[in-house]
Amino acid sequence: MERISSNLFMLALIVYYIPKLFKIRKFNYRKAHIAVGTLSVVAMCLALFQKIGTEDFIKYIGFTLVMLSIGVTGYFLMKKRGISKKLHIISTIGFFVYLFLVVAVF
Known about the structure:
Shape: globular
Radius of gyration: 14 Å
Structural class: mainly alpha
Number of domains: 1
Distance between the termini: 20 Å
Helix content: over 70%
Largest sheet: none
């Protein structure tokens, strides 16, 4: 389940930034980004439940919290575009920082 979540997370980033990079307007990349990102957060929550009782459980608590913060800030980004956009970007960068720390430390 964690593999599915990480693949969906990367797909959500690609679906959002590739059309934006090439200035493609016909494709509604924002809705696709939201849909794929939501599936990614749900998959990470399910992965956390699968890891209960294993030694990786502590790591997945952190991953799930970071993914939830990305999802929550993304939800508020749909309502208001002010500080939520900065928090959403910071949360996304935080995911990669946490990923590096988990790989380097554990």
